[in-house]
Amino acid sequence: MPVQHDIAAETELWDTFAASAFKEDAEPGFCWTQYAGHGPGPELLGDPRSVLEIGCGTGRALAHLAEQGIAARGVDLSSVMVKKTTTKWAGTGAEFVCSEVLEYLSEHEEEYDAVYSIFGAAWFTDPGRLFPLVRRRLRPGGVFVFSQPPAIPGAYGPQGMYKGGFAGKAMFTYRYSYRPAVWERLLTRAGFATAEARVLDAPHPGHIGTLLVRAVAP
């Protein structure tokens, strides 16, 4: 059964997250994994002229792409984060929009060469609703790439996730976790021509790896 998200409550959560995650001295940078300098880079996007990042957070990845001359737009639920990123990365040409991702993808008709998510909206949005909308926003042959932590064995589907610790105000969201083969099936069912999901090992044995998923539109 689909999970009913409380968008107002999740907005408050991500506004709070923005206050701690955004760093004024940050530089543009692109990394799919949680380990700096580890794993592939933006080459997974191909050679796009335009990109959309869903759940763009601190904006570092989007700013990096914009500096390469790519038309780069990001969508984030937090108005606090969007205000910070718009100011911080104004000189790069990156554009930041405050919106709930499903609403944005449903209501706007722009198409992109690539849509991506780095520990962002693809982790926190029902793939049954998200993937068909992403597919519609891609040009023919466009790519959808996302990364997030891999599923804990035996713990699949939507799961509640507290943010900010386990004391104080209860702020939570839902994340979506599946085995790689299931991610591939969800994407092809949503209309993608091909899909490949894999877990990239961490740079240190025994540490948490990174789920990397790449799908191509027909």
Describe this structure in words.
Pfam families: Methyltransf_25. Keywords: Transferase. One of its GO terms (molecular function) is methyltransferase activity. It comes from Streptomyces humidus. One of its GO terms (biological process) is antibiotic biosynthetic process. The protein has 218 residues and is of the alpha/beta class. It is 30% helix and 27% strand. The chain is built from seven helices and nine strands, in the order αβαβαβαβααβββαββ. The strands form two sheets. The chain has a seven-stranded mixed β-sheet, with helices on both faces. Strands 6-7 form a two-stranded antiparallel sheet. Helix 2 links the parallel strand 1 and strand 2 (71-76). The longest helix has 15 residues, at 7-21. The relative contact order is 0.17.
Radius of gyration, CA atoms, in whole angstroms:
16 Å
Q: What is the tally of helical segments?
A: 7
Anisotropy-based shape: globular
Q: Percentage of helical residues?
A: 25-40%
Estimate what percentage of residues fall within beta strands.
25-35%
End-to-end CA span: 29 Å
pLDDT below 50 for ≥5 consecutive residues: which ranges? none
Can you summarize the main beta sheet?
Answer: 7 strands, mixed
Task: Please tally the β strands and state the result.
Answer: 9
Average pLDDT value? Answer: 94
